[in-house]
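Deliverable D4.2, example record:
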Amino acid sequence: MRIRSLALLLTGALAISSLSAQTKTTKATATAPAATAEPAKPAFQLFDLSYATDALAPVISQRTVELHYGKHVVGYLHKLNKLVHENDIKERDLARLVRFSSGAIFDNAGQLLNHLLYFKQFRPYEAGRVTEPQGALRAALLRSYKDFDAFKADFEKAGGEIFGSGWLWLSTDEAGDIYVEKTSNAGTPVTRGRVPLLAIDIWEHAYYLDYENRRADHLRAIWQIIDWEVVGRRYEARAKGVQL
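Output generated by the structure prediction step:
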């Protein structure tokens, strides 16, 4: 009887010891740190401005640049990256993505590309400075217009004809011919197989704080901050496609 009791005691002790060991193992496993995955790198990055946010004033105020670049452009960028991730899109050439996409992806990619061209074509304001295109771009313009003032008048007129939100463009093709184009919303000459040279934002967020409903005044003033060297390089490199 004693032997059987001793055997039962030993069996119980072993069971308790085994359960205790399992509990310790479970606890050790539960407290082990989980591996953390690296956050996915966004497909597209925010471009930098080559000038201070107050450098375009009084043509475009610091407040407008801060809202336009810091809020609107950032918003398009974040939405595009979200859409690219959700739809597993591999394309990283922004111009190609614009040309071959549609719907919300086109809208946000188009707006990002358009604003990239827009903000990269400006230089800081200097009172009394008047500049004009030179070289090959000037020659191309003068094949279609009697002088630069005639081009400006035609360009401003086209900008006044855009109904609602959109963009005003000077564009070219591989042959070097010049076009003044109007597009709605996120539209761009890229979808027509042309190369954008000069991009003017006609959305109200681009000028309303400074000019209210006087779009024509904004178009007349904006020539003072156009960097024609940038626009000219885009023209000369047209065979390579969209250039910034």
